[in-house]
Amino acid sequence: MVGAEAAHARDHAEVLDLDADVVGHLEELTAWVGAHLRDEPTAVLDIGAGSGSGTLALAERFPRAEIVALDESAQMIDHLERAASASGLADRIRTVRADADEDWPAIGTFDLAWASSSLHHMRNPDRVLRSARAALAVDGVLAVVEMDGLPRFLPPESGSGRPGLEERCRAAMAGAGWNAHPDWSGHLRSAGFDLVEQRTFSYLRAPAPPLAWRYAERVFTNVRAHLADRLAPHDLEAIDELLDDRAPGSLAQRRDLVVRSARTIWLARRG
């Protein structure tokens, strides 16, 4: 079981890092958050930091800040620490292994808290929001980021199976509750925040970045492994062809991939 958990953590960390690299959304989102702050933060909290791609982006965006990265996974913490060392930012990043759904350890007071693609994983997100508010300084700000469905990679005329393969895959993901999240506005207000702004950012990368095929491969591999009972046989055959590196139409060999993705961000100030 431990080996399986470690393997899952490695795979998940790879997907998170690929998402940050291929979609390239973190620079714009952290800049947008920074433009709404009254002062440059010196203490930033990353809630559910995962692989640390957001942690590193926050450290780069706010060079005066110490970043505290909170996550319950020992494997993710280890991955994050190695990434911080490799980037030369380890001296400003402190990791804390803790379950955000439980009572938080004494980690300090923060000017900015950030929860990217993590809040919808929490067992009790309202409690997490209250904990985040308690950890913020007066006028502190919380940014909640969510992915609006998994990204798309195939051009309209992809030649992979029947038209609309990705739309049917996305419908299967939605039916299974993958990445499902509510509009967090009401939850933020209930936790004692004043909502500053909510905005959706859309991304189109065409031509696709070099590692887009690998990201697409991970997404379709997960769909094939976990949603086969929600897809028709002809769609499963098309996915198998995409994942067969020897096939001319495989993701690894295609040169027509694009990347379409979107993020919604809620910015709220401690009330």
TrEMBL record:
Q: Is the Glycoprotein keyword given for this protein?
A: no
Q: Domain Methyltransferase type spans what residues?
A: 45-142
Against Pfam families, the record matches this protein to:
Methyltransf_12
What InterPro entries does the annotation carry?
Answer: Methyltransf_12, SAM-dependent_MTases_sf
Query: Does the entry feature the keyword Cell division, yes or no?
Result: no
Keywords (A to Z) from UniProt: Methyltransferase, Transferase
List the GO molecular function terms: methyltransferase activity
What biological-process GO terms show up in the record?
methylation
This protein is called Methyltransferase family protein
Provide the species name. Diaminobutyricimonas aerilata
